[in-house]
Amino acid sequence: PINTNLSFKNQGGFAKAVELCNGSGLCRKRTGGTMCPSYMVTLDEQDTTRARANMLRSVIEGTLPPEELTGRRMKEVMDLCVGCKACKTECPSSVDVASMKTEVLYQTGREHGFSMRQKAAGHIRRQLAFASLFPSLYNTVAGMRLARRAAGLAGIDPRRSLPRVAKETFSKRFPELPQGAGPVEVALFNDTWNEYQRPEVGEGAVRLFAAAGARVHLPEVVCCGRPMLSEGLVDEARKNARRNLDLLMPLIERGVPLVGLEPSCILTMRDDYGKLLPDDGRVEKLADATRLFEEALLELDRDLPLRDGEPVLLHGHCHQKALVGTGPTERLLGRAADVEVVDSGCCGMAGLFGYEKGHYEASMQMGERRLFPAVRGAGERVVVAPGTSCREQIMDGTERLALHPAEYLASLLDGQETVG
Length: 420
Prior knowledge:
Blueprint: H1 14-19, H2 37-42, H3 49-61, H4 72-78, H5 86-90, H6 97-112, H7 116-122, H8 124-131, H9 135-142, H10 145-153, H11 170-173, E1 185-189, H12 192-196, H13 199-211, E2 215-217, H14 226-230, H15 234-253, E3 258-260, H16 263-271, H17 273-276, H18 282-289, E4 290-292, H19 293-300, E5 312-314, H20 318-323, H21 327-333, E6 339-341, H22 360-369, H23 371-376, E7 382-384, H24 388-398, H25 405-410
Parallel strand pairs: 1-2, 1-3, 3-4, 5-6, 5-7
């Protein structure tokens, strides 16, 4: 048996988790839904959920030797899995290939070592924190062609724009933002992208919660661990999960909901911490307290002073669609605008997947399948996407600015300038 670093006890162990795949082949569908984004663009059997499960099954059953778990062929089969989690809900057997890929990446890294790119990607929060100390200098350098070439040495495709940082972090802006009268409270999970790159998203969220009468806490946190899991850095992700539990439990024990702006971050805490810390009783309490921004605002059930906005074209985040659905986002946006939802599958960026050398073409093909044409044809509709990487992909593929739901709705509050 394979001694896994992630816990698969909810499926009866790793072997049984793999055996959930019954070969139905629904992952070979070409239209509708998200599963499986890699197969939808390559039409190659090896890029299906089924092929990945079969490859693992062959190792577990002994058809292939144990060393193939971390071998070249396994790497090829797992390579284009974007970790979208669609197979967890769209597959009739609920096969969780995203977690299986994380385990394979961990086993491979333990056997052969983790690359410089994997380590850098997994610790992106640390890098952006350093860059935020010198934002103007960093942004100038990041915009240079030489910087892209240098990033290429670390495995980043030079056709991608390097991330920029905001001149002032969200945590520095937070004390000046309005607060509701209470007594309702929410805690905002200050994810990496909100803190260092897009603080205007957090600003919009706080203004909306204040307009709904809620007081907002901004607790100290560390990275949720999603970038680490995407690179197989399971031990590091576990360390961060434990630290976040230590930091957040005082608020959770008081019944304060934990609100996430970035779907992949807050849903990592809801869906993945149990695999990292299966015997920590605090994990379930934290998971129960997590809310997407839209879920939390709807739960307050307060009328917001919103003007009517321009119609919206909505692209949902993969993890959001797999674990929650776009319903809460549609309902919240629908309070101020007509909403059209794109059945766009995965945008193709998938965190840092689309940045990596060897993935650029597949990444753009995923976006071009449905999302990019819908955005180009959106006309006067404002493009809205909760996911940071989704918004970056939309900009790269269509040169169209996409907004987070909090940005869009906050611009419709009385006294705010409309965005769109």
